[in-house]
């Protein structure tokens, strides 16, 4: 395996777990981070220790010049980008609609889609030229099933879901797939960190499996979609929720 994967927001949580799983499976991994350089370096060391190859690259995925520079560096290092895992968390407000401002909602929508647009635009031309690519985006069950306080996140991710479907339709003839992974609340991540201990406990208890999903469990689903084995799976929304919601 000599595929090259860029993982945004890979210094912790789902992104870090994905970097390790892909490195263990033979991918060369770009660990993108925004401000957590030390944590990103730790992920690189862990991936290398596991027998993989990894480098850390700082980039703000909402900044066009940063995204271009990251992809240029990845290409100089390893020649191409075969897989994009867009996991970077764009900050959002936890609030009711009654207290929601347009800046909170519109700002989240703009930054969420701008990041997805920029990072996708940066990798798709090269994938088309090679006739191969895997695009994987982290969504959330909140894009389909609302939960109190999560209106900004849920609305923005619903827009991302549809964006990815349109991309999937357009790039399919070029051997490129585009899919969404939608976990329920994930343990030990920034999102779960915004909840009170009582809310985290309640979410775990109400899951049929009796706990929250782990970053590693999400990463394994991402790894399938990043692999050659998923060649005829595109435009799909894959929940990872322990049976919390069954479609």
Explain the layout of strands and helices.
Blueprint: E1 4-8, H1 13-24, E2 28-33, H2 37-49, E3 53-58, H3 64-78, E4 83-86, H4 102-130, E5 133-138, H5 151-171, E6 176-183, H6 190-193, H7 197-206, H8 215-225, E7 237-240
Parallel strand pairs: 1-2, 1-4, 2-3, 4-5, 5-6, 6-7
Protein name: 3-oxoacyl-[acyl-carrier-protein] reductase MabA
InterPro entries: NAD(P)-bd_dom_sf, SDR, SDR_fam
Family: Belongs to the short-chain dehydrogenases/reductases (SDR) family.
Report on the structure:
GO terms for molecular function: 3-oxoacyl-[acyl-carrier-protein] reductase (NADPH) activity. It is found in: Secreted, Cell wall. The structure is a single chain. This protein is of the alpha/beta class and 247 residues long. The chain has one domain (4-238): Rossmann fold, CATH 3.40.50. Helix content is 47%, strand content 16%. The protein contains eight helices and seven strands. The chain has a seven-stranded parallel beta sheet with strand order 3-2-1-4-5-6-7, sandwiched between helices. Helix 2 links the parallel strand 2 and strand 3. The protein is globular. It starts with a strand and ends in a 7-residue tail after the last strand. The mean pLDDT is 93.
């Amino acid at each position: 395996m000599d595929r090259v994967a860029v993982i945004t927001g890979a210094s912790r949580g789902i992104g870090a777990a994905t970097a390790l799983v892909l490195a263990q499976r033979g991918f060369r991994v770009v660990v993108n981070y925004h401000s957590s350089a030390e944590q990103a370096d730790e992920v690189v060391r862990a991936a290398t220790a596991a027998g993989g190859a990894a480098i850390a690259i700082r980039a703000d995925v909402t900044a066009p010049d940063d995204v271009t520079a990251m992809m240029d560096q990845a290409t100089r290092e390893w020649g191409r980008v075969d897989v994009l895992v867009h996991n970077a968390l764009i900050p959002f407000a936890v609030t009711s609609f009654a207290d929601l401002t347009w800046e909170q909602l519109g700002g989240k929508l703009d930054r969420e889609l701008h990041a997805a647009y920029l990072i996708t635009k940066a990798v798709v031309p090269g994938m088309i030229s090679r006739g191969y690519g895997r695009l994987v985006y982290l969504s959330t069950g909140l894009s389909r099933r609302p939960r109190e306080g999560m209106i900004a996140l849920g609305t923005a991710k619903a827009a991302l879901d549809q964006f990815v479907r349109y991309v999937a339709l357009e790039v399919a003839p070029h051997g490129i797939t585009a899919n969404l992974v939608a976990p329920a609340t994930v343990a030990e991540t920034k999102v779960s960190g915004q909840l009170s201990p009582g809310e985290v406990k309640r979410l775990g208890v109400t899951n049929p499996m009796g706990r929250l999903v782990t970053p590693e469990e999400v990463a394994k689903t991402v790894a399938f979609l990043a692999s050659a084995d998923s060649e005829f799976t595109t435009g799909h929304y894959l929940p990872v929720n322990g049976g919390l919601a069954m479609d």
